[in-house]
Amino acid sequence: MKEIKPQGIITPVLTTLTDDEKFNPEAYTNFINKLIDAGVSGIFPLGTNGEFYAFNNEEKLEIIKTAVKAVNGRVPVYAGTGCVTTKETIEMSLKVKDLGVDVLSIISPYFVAVSQDDLYRHYSAVANAVDMPILLYNIPARTGNNIDFKTVKKLAEHKNIIGIKDSSGNFDNTLKYIENTDPRLSVLAGSDSLILWTLMAGGSGAISGCSNVFPELMVSIYKYWAAGDIAKANEAQKKIRPFRNVMQMGNPNSVVKLAANMLGNKVGPAREPSNCTNPAIVEALKKVFTLY
Question: What mean pLDDT is predicted for residues 153-162?
């Protein structure tokens, strides 16, 4: 297993669709090229912004294959393979292992109520069964569970578990991952409003949904921070607040997709029932775009 440290701004890339909701590989390749040209540090197919929940396994494999081919080794590829059950997560992860991805991102089981012991057994079983770098994905608002820092600390015994993306929006939760688990683990911001603060606290980067819309701006937060220019990094961080506010007017990743389309990226609709066509959101986005 090759060593990799997740860092920088990683894009959970939007899954491009045709008007009749079929995967559009040509548009996907073009969009990935645009993101890499903008300086992102990784491409992440089938995250929340990639609508992982909307595709069957056959479609997921095609999407991942297309991403790997489009990236062509220029940056690491992180693929979302988390499912509700441990068995299905392992099966999906093993299928993806041979496709050329660098890291598996595994969301905690969703819908089903799980304890911290359940989460420990789940991730341990996956780590033992799949010899690949694994990034844990914590998003309690969507899964109904929060991966406790004590559970993460125990899971660090598996050397192929290399970090965690925290989309809890709770900065204290992120701090616990940074301060009280294992310094070997990379902690990535999953809430774009907390990127700079996560970096300053010892995190290594972000998986940034907003980078689908404003890739250069999001990359600049990391670059300014890395150069020690905190004032400019903070200025860039503040610029995304108006857009973040509009995201809260609908399903956030559907608003991101709408915004990307409005800026001329041919990413297509979100799969129903979550496609965003609300005229109020369209008008709000038009106002936001005048700020950039």
Answer: 98
Residues in the chain: 292
Cβ within 8 Å of residue 203, ≥6 positions away: 174, 178, 186, 187, 188, 189
**Cα(10)–Cα(129) distance, integer angstroms:** 26
Question: Which position has the token pair 């903008």?
Answer: 38
The model's pLDDT over 134-154, given as tens digits with 9 standing for 90+, comes to 999 999 999 999 999 999 999
Q: What is the pTM of this model?
A: 0.96
Closest CA to 165 of 80, 62, 100, 226: 80
The residues annotated with a catalytic role in the active site are 137, 165
> Do residues 270 and 254 make contact, with C-beta atoms less than 8 angstroms apart?
yes
DSSP the chain: -------EEEE-----B-TTS-B-HHHHHHHHHHHHHTT-SEE-TTSTTTTGGGS-HHHHHHHHHHHHHHHTTSS-BEEE---SSHHHHHHHHHHHHTTT-SEEEEEPP-SS---HHHHHHHHHHHHHH--S-EEEEE-HHHHS----HHHHHHHTTSTTEEEEEE-S--HHHHHHHHHHS-TTSEEEE-SGGGHHHHHHHT--EEE-GGGGT-HHHHHHHHHHHHTT-HHHHHHHHHHTHHHHHHHTTS-HHHHHHHHHHHTT----PPPTTS----HHHHHHHHHHHTT-
User: Residue 203 and residue 63: Cα distance in Å, rounded?
Assistant: 29
Q: What is the pLDDT of residues 250-265, one digit of tens each?
A: 999 999 999 999 999 9
Any idea what the Cα angle at residue 275 is, between residues 58 and 266, rounded to 5°?
A: 75
